[in-house]
Amino acid sequence: MAEQDDDAAGPLVRPYAMTHGRTRASADFDLITLVVAARAARTDEGWEPEHLAILERARHPVSVAELAAAVNLPAGVVRVLLDDLRARGALIVRMPAARTARPDLDLLKAVAHGLQAL
Amino acid sequence: MAYKHSEDDLPTALKILIAGGFGVGKTTMVASLSEVDPLRTEEVITAESVGIDDLSGVEGKSTTTVALDFGRITLAGNLILYLFGTPGQDRFWFVWDELATGALGAVVLADTRRLADSFPSVDFFEKRGMPFLVAVNCFDGAKRYRPEDIRVALDLDDDVRVMLTDARDRQSAKEVLIAFVEDLIRRARQGGDE
Fold it and tell me: What gap in Å lies between CA B180 and CA B108, rounded to an integer?
């Protein structure tokens, strides 16, 4: 199985095959954007297996980075698939706290207290 | 199961980057702090998405893959703090840009035997005006230096804290994070006075 450790060996499936060639999500999903399933997938919705795997993993709140690690897909692919799920109301998305503005004092204090309590 | 129905039910996610040169202990520190074994995700970078200049060193490839190691700390108050180790310094600056966006700041790990390896990280965060702290990972057998000597050697501004740490030790790594967040609180207070 030495080949699997070889960085030069590409993935067995081209990464964007299951996104039908789309490489960009319409929304700007950060790696720590949190998502959670809003509902179960319906069988008549024509989801790819990867959509269903993501939705299953997102029954509890989870970040884009964790989802990508869990379903073993590049983060960029996961972003596109998340975009599909959200567009059809299957997913709730929460952007990270500090995407644009500097975090506020109360949030920083909560982080400090949380770390001290560990 | 019951599904969540509001964005407000979701925790608040934050991130801090763990930066520094190759082999300085970034993933070790992430592992010491994370409540789960460090996870790995991959970003596939396409030439189209980053511009050809950014792919120097990997010319001729239309895509390249960058592995990112990260960990998670769940905190009281419905907060989740993610720690991302930064990828190799030379080829992947565009990934650093993405990681840095929205980050609280960075811990730059330094090894006194190879202090110059931390220059690019220090430069990156200085240029972005992003808060960072330098944590000197005290490897067994390496000569101990005073934090003040490290400050001079790295030409750091006065408001950049320098600490000694042992990245393998959870308590020590935790103290680094707490000190960094306390620095951020101090800065936020000062900023509010202006």
Answer: 11
Q: What is the CA radius of gyration of chain B?
A: 18
Tally A–B CB contacts below 8 A.
Answer: 159
The Cα A116–Cα B48 span in angstroms is: 44
Distance to chain B for A91, nearest Cα, Å: 9
CB B107 within 8 A of CB B177: yes
Please report which helix (H) or strand (E) contains residue B67, including its range.
strand B63-75
DSSP state of A96: -
Cβ pair A115:B99 closer than 8 A: no
Predicted TM-score of the model (pTM) = 0.86
Optimal mutation site among A7, A115, A116, interface B, most CBs of chain B within 10 A = A115
Q: Say what the ipTM of the complex is.
A: 0.86
Please write the tens of the pLDDT for every residue from B30-55: 999 999 999 999 887 765 444 444 44
Q: Which domain holds residue B125?
A: 12-39+70-188
CATH code for the domain defined by A10-116: 1.10.10
